[in-house]
Amino acid sequence: MQPSPLNPSAVSYRSLFSLPVIVSALGYFVDVYDLLLFNIVRVPSLTELGLSEEAVSRVGGTILNWQQAGLLLGGILWGVLGDKRGRLSVLFGSIITYSLANIACGFVEDPQTYALLRFVAGLGLAGELGAGITLVSEILPKETRGFGTSLIAGVGLFGAVVAYLTVVLFDWRTAYFVGGGMGLALLLLRVSVFESGMFLQLKEKAVERGNFLSLFTNPRLRMIYLRCMGLAVPTYFVIGILATFSNEFGKALGLPEPVVVGKAVMYTYIGMAVGDLVSGPLSQALRSRRRAIGLLMALNLLLVVVYLAGVVQSAAGFYALCCALGFSIGYIALFLTVSAEHFGTNLRATATTSIANNVRATTLLTIPLFQTWKSTFGVIGAATAVAVLCFAISFWSLSRIQETYGKDLNYYED
User: Fold this and answer.
1) Which of 106, 313, 324, 398 matches a 20 to 30 Å C-alpha distance to 211?
2) Composition of the chain by helix, strand, coil, percent to 5
3) Is residue 222 included in any domain, yes or no?
């Protein structure tokens, strides 16, 4: 389907401040807070549980993998539920799941229970962003769709900053209570959110909904699905490797003072929040999702080269570079909008929600590659090799993906 012409002068922006957009943005804020909280409190929480320095590293990695496994499984389950039962069922169910799991994390006394609770939390966290993007994409007029989804991510990503500041001000158990409490408080707002009209219309038709396997058994849908995923592979290369292991890169680059990982991650997410606020309006101004994503990808590639080449030689400059890198990958909402626009209403939540979490889980592949290649190529060489692979996938995907700007979403897949 070709994009329809849009008349910017006739566009009303009032819908951007509707309750579904506001609640989805706040929901993603809590989602990001809870998703990153374990990364931030990993060392102090496991140390308090009596683990040695070596065990903190090993067990911490295992617990994080359990959380990622929850995201992978939850991405499928919530996506299917969103197409079968409705977008609101996911928004309610997911936030209850991860809010209660995070409160429970504040009471853990052993690593085994900790791992189980982070799995449950990951399961719940998987539903938030995909369901919110799907709902808002279907509710908003196509003239303002890019602005709405951009607003969700821009507001939501500041949850990472609040998570970092909460841990600075309070102990790790209290930080979990705060996250869980914010989620439960958000339920009160969600009671007033209305369901997508497109989904309600579809329920009246004899159409199969939420068939996850059809995304792979149908050759056309399979290629679209993989290309949508490929667009965002560099985003979690930056988050999962360049920011998460920033202390190692600081040493390898010979910076005069140690890099604090928490600060590097915080500045990266600040940049991402600004980038996501900009990328949606940019796609509207260019009248093209592909061109907006392509510009940010090119900027990201340039900044990764600057990062790995050691151009910056101070800690302050390094944190500024992390912020700039975050800005360049601030097209997460935009790529998910493209994903939502590529699939019919009967598969939209299934595809968008699972794609969002599959991209998050690419770190399960890129981090082991990075760790394995470090022994041969060193920290910089290993990261360079992974970067080449990630950017090759993303630019290939961009060259093959269809333009979806202005596309009417009121259709379903046969």
Assistant:
1) 398
2) 80, 0, 20
3) yes
> What's the rounded Cα separation, in Å, for the pair 376 and 403?
41
Q: pLDDT of 249-301, one tens digit each?
A: 999 999 999 998 878 988 999 999 999 999 999 999 999 999 999 999 999 99
Q: Are 386 and 366 in contact (CB under 8 A)?
A: yes
Nearest to 210 by CA among 72, 89, 85: 85
Count of helix runs (H) and strand runs (E) in the chain: 19, 0
On the 0-12 / 13-18 / 19+ scale of CB atoms within 10 A, 347 is: buried
Query: Domain holding 243: CATH number?
Result: 1.20.1250.20
pLDDT in tens, 293-336: 999 999 999 999 999 999 999 999 999 999 999 999 999 989 99
Question: Is the overall model pTM greater than 0.85, yes or no?
Answer: yes
* Secondary structure class of 385 (helix, strand, coil): helix
* pLDDT confidence bin for 3, thresholds 50/70/90: very low
Domain extent, residue 195, equals: 17-400
Domain contains 405: no
Burial class (CB in 10 A: 0-12, 13-18, 19+), 49: middle
Q: What is the dihedral of CA 31, 33, 36, 37, to 10 degrees?
A: -120
Q: How many CA atoms lie within 13 A of 238 on its CB side?
A: 35
On whether residue 413 sits in a domain, the answer given is no
Q: What tens digit of pLDDT does each residue of 143-178 get?
A: 888 888 899 988 888 898 899 899 889 999 999 999
- C-alpha distances (whole Å) from 136 to each of 125, 148, 176, 279 are 18, 7, 28, 17
